[in-house]
Design goal:
0% strand; mainly alpha; 3 helices; 75 residues
């Protein structure tokens, strides 16, 4: 196999992956969003979303609410 055929095959696979992601995003009709941290669409800083997600999960499970000290972590 030549370099050109390998590069073409890789480009085709990459293009199909991008098309699949785009189709999935279109059918879900949801905006792209980051994982945790950063800023939201309005430019306001986001809270520590890992802690927020843990609080929401605790609420759904009926567990005691997490405190700020529960959310602290060492970098």
């Amino acid at each position: 196999m030549s370099f050109f055929s390998i590069a073409l095959a890789a480009l085709l696979v990459w293009g199909l992956a991008m098309a699949g992601l785009a189709v999935g995003l279109i059918f879900q009709r949801k905006a792209l969003s980051g994982s945790c941290g950063g800023i939201d669409a309005d430019g306001k800083p986001l809270a520590d979303c890992l802690c927020e997600k843990a609080r929401e999960a605790a609420n759904r499970a009926g567990a005691p609410a997490l405190t700020e000290s529960d959310c602290e972590y060492e970098a």
